[in-house]
Amino acid sequence: MSDTGAHSQDGGNGLNQTVKTPEPNPDQQLATEQLQANGPGTPGHFASFDWEEFEARYTKALVDADGHEQELMKQFDELVKYFNVWSSASSAHDSERAVKRLQTRQRFVNLSEQTMAQREQHMTEVLRAFQSALALLSQS
Fold first, then answer.
1. pLDDT tier at 4 (50, 70, 90 boundaries)?
2. What's the pLDDT tens digit per position in 39-71?
3. Residue ranges of region Disordered (predicted)?
C-alpha cells in the first residue's frame, strides 16, 4: 500500500503548485518484498551515504549563494548612487527655484514701496497746492 498525498508548494515565484508523491514502481515493490523475505526481522542493507560529497555540495551552494548576494549588493549600491545623484539634483533645482521666488518677491516689494513713495510725494504736492489755493482765497 502506498500513500499518494498531495502537497502544495510555493516555488518562490508566488504560484502554488501541487506536487504528488510518486507511486512506487512494481520492481521496487518486488525488491522490497524479497528483502523482507530474506530476513524476518532485518530491514535490509542500507547503501552507504557519502557525507563528504554532501558537505562539499552544501559548501558550494553556500559559496554560490554568497556570490549572488554580493552581486545583488553591488547592484543595490549602484542604484543608491543613482538615487543620491537624482536626489541632490532635485534638491539643487528646488533651491534655485526658491531663490528665484525670493528675488521676485523682493522686486515686487521694492516696486510697491517705490509706488507708495511716489503716491505720497504726489499727495504732498497736491496738499500744498490746495493749501496755497486756500491761502490765496482767504487773502482776497
1. very low
2. 555 566 777 888 999 999 999 999 999 999 999
3. 1-46
Please report where in the chains the cell 547592484 appears, as a residue. Answer: 75
Name residue, grid cell 490765496: 136
Instruction: Map the chain to HEC letters.
Output: CCCCCEEEEECCCCCEEEEECCCCCHHHHHHHHHHHHHCCCCCCCCCCCCHHHHHHHHHHHHHHHHHHHHHHHHHHHHHHHHHHHHHHHHHHHHHHHHHHHHHHHHHHHHHHHHHHHHHHHHHHHHHHHHHHHHHHHHHC
CA gyration radius, the chain: 47
